[in-house]
Amino acid sequence: MTAAQARRFVYDCDVLVVGGGIVGLATAHALRAARPGLAVTVLEKEPRLAAHQSGRNSGVIHSGVYYRPGSMKARFAVRGAAELRKFCAEHGIPHAAPGKLIVATTADELPRLHELAQRARRNGVPVRELGQAQMAEYEPGVHGIAALRVLTTGQTDFAAVARRFAELVEVRRSAEVVAVDRRPGLGVAVRTARGEVLRARALVNCAGLYGDRIARLAGDDPGLRIVPFRGEFYRLRAERAHLVRGLVYPVPDPAFPFLGVHLTRGLDGEVHIGPNAVLALAREGYDWRTVRPGELADALGYPGLWRMAARHWRAGAGELLRSLSKRAFTAAVRRLLPVVTEDDLLPSPAGVRAQAVLPDGSLADDFHITEAPHTVHVLNAPSPAATACLPIANEIAGRTLRHLR
């Protein structure tokens, strides 16, 4: 870089972070903590923070049971759960650690339940295997023949965590990124929908549902496509909330990447039931009425989506049926909670999961972070990313700081 070039490229900050969800805000905080005095600005396209994945979830601090030993998800969930509980305690954010049950309802689920117990122990997660009578001591209304008691599963309000991070960093709201101009050896210039141009030495892409789009704006090939899966929830009527004491999950299907319909008693005492997983008709499509033709055409034109559909069509058909039929959704719930009826279930806000799908149709099963000159892209950070936000942020911060040398 010549002196003349440097004079023409005046930096507004050292690092721009795109995305005001919990991962983006935690990353800004980690960058400031790692290098005090570093100028970091978060750009969030919405007028409020944590408007999407970070604020539309079940509030569960995951323990790290499900994830492949040695993976980032496994390592960061275990570490992140402990670090997040500490952060919540230090900053007065409500949280709890009630533990949870993973319940086998049929004999063919018992080997998978035992395998989960072994995986949990390899990941350093304390668990207990329970028989039917022991399980009933925790959840007398739940049907099952055996269960895994996961001791470290917790709860918090992730939107509140995100808001606390935002108080510690600089955030610009209503700042949707529409163009990224990378200048080799200099940095990046970002233009927002309001016409602002901001220059920085490095850019961190934590744009969630639009992470692959931001990567392409920067001139980088993400090598995958983010596909939005809507997760729909119900809640139990207040007078029926006593049926669930804590957190109850089914044994997941190893061939399907989602955990299945589960029961979550929140910190406020409400019991939420869900989610299912259906293809959304827009990246922020929280109901069937929300359709963005361009985004839908982009998804349907991706060969990886059709390969994924061919691989998981049977499970996908069941998820679709449970979305369109409350009776079918109730039947799925009754496997765990036999006394529940359709009338007991009231609609609750849905969420959308940003799931990275690879060209061969497989779903990225770990966090996926890539680097290019002046840029770091977070391209797959669904659950348990909120739980793991602090170690993820430290990982991203370390990679970003290497671009600032």
TrEMBL record:
Its EC number is 1.1.3.-. The keyword Hydrolase does not apply. GO terms for molecular function: (S)-2-hydroxyglutarate dehydrogenase activity. It comes from the Bacteria. Belongs to the L2HGDH family. It comes from Streptomyces hainanensis. This is L-2-hydroxyglutarate oxidase. GO terms for cellular component: cytoplasm.
